[in-house]
Amino acid sequence: MRRPLIAANWKMNKLIPEAVEWVAGIQRLLPGLPDAEIILAPPFTHLAALKPHCKNDSLKLAGQNMFWEPQGAFTGEISGAMLKSAGCEYVILGHSERRLFFHEDDAGINKKISSAQADGLKTILCVGETLEQRNGGQTEEVVKSQLQGALEGIEDKGDLVVAYEPVWAIGTGLTATPDQAQEAHAFIRATLGSILSPEASEGVRILYGGSVNQDNSRELLNQSDIDGALVGGASLAVEKFCAIIASLN
Ligand code: PEP
């Protein structure tokens, strides 16, 4: 019922020529891979250059962030409409690196989601606990409050995706076990049921993110509430990223 979604988050990596080569590579490999929605979130500067290389909608583009205001004197920021006009269908919001390094909070993320919806962009909302919070038994409380804060007053129009990304697993080589991830995803789905509606929560895809690679992806993606993956480090090499897509089989 929920089409699998595998997204590559390049963060601040790659120059445009390497990015174009990666896109050409994935276009060659995708026809032999299982059906899934495939999304690439490159740096903003690469979007317009990559768009003409994304043929047949088989590879969709996402922004890694955006600001909530539509335009104006906000040096260094970009709007949802700008992402849209550069060819994006999605935007990643609330990534833990944005929360940690740029002090983003749930209220600001909430404004960004509203603005993304107004601009016709789909959102990949990232939530997840730190190691300290997990060890303190606060995982559910933290994730619930992130979801409630970010989604307050938001209606699902079929344009919401949630990524569960335990902060302690991002870029560390540590991964949640399939059981830990499934437990968190089931909790997120139940929480979405009370924030949105039970029907809407059944349709929302919940991605797992945190050191996903070709060795651990199959077991993670096999879990009933894991609908895909948000991949950082292992998305930089196209063959490794495609091996993760192949593990959907
Ligand atoms: C991410 O940044 O969203 C991520 C999951 O990174 P990594 O796969 O490198 O842990």
What does this structure look like?
- The structure is a single chain.
- An eight-stranded parallel barrel has the order 1-2-3-4-5-6-7-8, surrounded by four helices.
- The chain has a single domain (5-246), classed as Alpha-Beta Barrel (TIM Barrel).
- Strand 7 (205-209), helix 10 (217-221) and strand 8 (228-231) form a beta-alpha-beta unit.
- With 249 residues, it is of the alpha/beta class.
- It is globular, with a radius of gyration of 17 Å.
- It has helices at 16-29, 47-50, 80-85, 96-101, 106-118, 131-135, 139-151, 178-195, 198-203, 217-221, 238-246; strands spanning 5-9, 37-41, 60-63, 88-93, 122-127, 160-164, 205-209, 228-231.
- Residues 9, 165, 170-171, 209-212, 230-234 line the site of phosphoenolpyruvate (PEP).
Short description:
The chain is of the alpha/beta class and 249 residues long.
Secondary-structure arrangement, i.e. CATH architecture: Alpha-Beta Barrel
Strand order across the largest sheet: 1-2-3-4-5-6-7-8
Tell me, what's the shape? globular
CATH superfamily: Aldolase class I
Tally of DSSP β-strands: 8
Q: Into how many domains do the coordinates divide?
A: 1
**Which topology does CATH recognise?**
TIM Barrel
Heteromolecules bound: phosphoenolpyruvate
Name of the CATH first level: Alpha Beta
Secondary structure category: alpha/beta
Q: What series of H and E elements makes up the topology?
A: EHEHEHEHHEHHEHHEHEH
As a whole number of angstroms, the C-alpha radius of gyration is: 17 Å
> In DSSP terms, counting alpha (H) and pi (I) runs of 4 or more, how many helices?
11
| Mean pLDDT across residues | 97
Calculate the terminal CA-CA distance, rounded to whole Å: 16 Å
Question: Helicity, in percent?
Answer: 25-40%
Strand content is 15-25%
